[in-house]
Amino acid sequence: MLARKSIIPEEFGLPGLASRMPRKPVFRDRVNKARFIAKNGSCNLAHKNIREQGRFLQDVFTTLVDLKWRFTLVIFTTTFVSSWLLFAMSWWLVAFAHGDLDPLRANGKHCVTDVQSFTSAFLFSIEVQVTIGFGGRMITEHCPTAITVLIMQNIVGLIINAVMLGCIFMKTAQSNRRAETLIFSRHAVIAVRNNCLCFMIRIGDLRKSMIIGATVRLQVVRKTTTPEGEVIPIHQIDVQTETVVASNSLFLLAPLIICHVIDKHSPLYDLSAMELQCSDLEVIVILEGVVETTGITTQARTSYVSEEIQWGHRFVPIVTEEEGVYSVDYSKFGNTVKVTTPRCSARELDEKPSILIQTLQKSELSHQNSLRKRNSMRRNNSMRKGAAAGGSRGLRRNNSGIASTKVQFYSPSDGGQSLNAVT
Questions:
Q1: Is 43 part of a structural domain of the chain?
Q2: Is residue 321 located within the same domain as residue 218?
Q3: Is residue 303 located within the same domain as residue 379?
Q4: Is the dihedral of CA 4, 7, 10, 13 positive or negative?
Q5: I want to staple 262 with a disulfide (CB 3.0 to 4.6 A). Which of 69, 238, 346, 385 is the partner?
Q6: Exposed, middle or buried by CB within 10 Å (0-12, 13-18, 19+), for 54?
């Protein structure tokens, strides 16, 4: 049985009308990708399939410093105990070869006195290398071999002490420990500053000891494809900052706002507020400098993905002057406030300057309206308070007038000549 045709033509039906309606551009949700630099500054990178592992042994000191503390302590203990055991075996062999273990053969001429077993040789090895010297065991001039072993153990002991103690010192004085007190704002902001669209972050130092020659570098990391079709998964693009142009280093005495002007040379030049939410870029911030107390170069790092960049926000001021001293309120370090900002890209602002002018005019008008509302609210509150105060004064005046009214009457005893007044 054939289906009956509809009376309404197909081009005027719901499917036909829906197909001809103009559609708004739909932005796909950004796929969550791994960060290149974590918020704490650690690199999110795993090295796999390294075939030439021997390269790490060629630089033993750096390898020991880079190891975790538990591995370093295990190696530290194992190295000393192994050296003690090795030279204990050497002392035992010297005593055995010279006949010190046999009282009849020694004839009072021992290489090392009171070494009669491996345990006593081990104790003597510890005394020699650690220079304890209890006084019960000692070498004599009757055995040149013992003198040679003593010299070798002293030299090896000094080398082990220098390497291991230096490794422990370097691990305790690593530069990344100083970077723990260099802080960055949780979010980055994009707003208009000096009539330009700017990308801004805030940095600070919690210690009073300063970072000498501090410099800040910004890089944008994103996945790009060259015109030849080559895919670069981690393409690093340097970003110029205002502070670097003005001077070579920062005076990081108080928290500073690092500003990057989004111009035609910026990798953020073509991004609007909507496109930023769907992009997969990551802005890396690197703060470098020399620690004033130790003279060691330190580096602090962090990064901002698109979800951590607030469009149309500005950092609130946190430095105030109190009783002749500048005070920094770190509880507001990452606080931002909304400001009127065009939602278009910096390229569109350069092509159409009227957008920025209109936005600034609207911002000025809204600011004036808010001021007028505040003034009117204050005026109304003051009028209400004045009316309430005036009503209370009038009521008091009326009550005082009623209370001061006098009533006069004649006293019958005086024959109506005298008057008594009652208030």
A1: no
A2: yes
A3: no
A4: negative
A5: 346
A6: exposed
- Do the Cβ atoms of 90 and 147 come closer than 8 Å? no
pLDDT of residue 186: 92
Q: Alpha carbon of 362 to those of 136, 344, 351, 358, 367: distances in Å?
A: 94, 16, 20, 6, 8
Confidence band, pLDDT 50/70/90 cuts, at residue 367:
low
Tokens representing 286 are 């690197």
Check residue 392 and give its pLDDT. 57
Of the candidates 140, 172, 204, which is a domain's last residue? 172
Q: What is the pLDDT of residue 37?
A: 84
Q: What CATH number is given to the structural domain containing 327?
A: 2.60.40.1400
Listed residue (399, 272, 270) closest to 344, CA to CA: 272
Answer whether residue 41 is part of any domain: no
Q: Which two tokens stand for residue 90?
A: 């050497």
State how many domains the chain has.
Answer: 3
The answer on 279 and 259 residing in a single domain is yes
230: amino acid identity, one letter? E
The encoded tokens of residue 62 equal 């750096």
Residue at 93 is within a domain: yes
Residue of 174, 154, 153, 178 lying closest to 72 (CA atoms): 174
Domain end residue (candidates: 341, 370, 404): 341
221 and 79 inside one domain: no
3 state SS for 231-299: EEEEEEEEECCHHHHHCCCECCCCCEEEEEECCCCCCCCCCCHHHHHHCCCEEEEEEEEEECCCCCEEE
**Mean pLDDT across the chain:** 78
Residues 6+ apart with CB under 8 A from 351: none
φ, ψ at 315 (rounded to 5°): -75, 140
Q: How far apart are CA 12 and CA 255, in angstroms?
A: 64
Non-local CB neighbours of 348 within 8 Å, separated by 6+ positions:
272, 342, 355
Q: Are strands 211-225 and 282-291 parallel, antiparallel or unpaired?
A: antiparallel
Same-domain check for residues 190 and 317: yes
Range of the domain at 356: 352-387
Q: Given the DSSP bridges, would you call strands 188-193 and 309-311 parallel, antiparallel or unpaired? A: parallel
Helix axes 144-172, 69-98, angle to 10 degrees: 180
Residues 284 and 371 in one domain: no
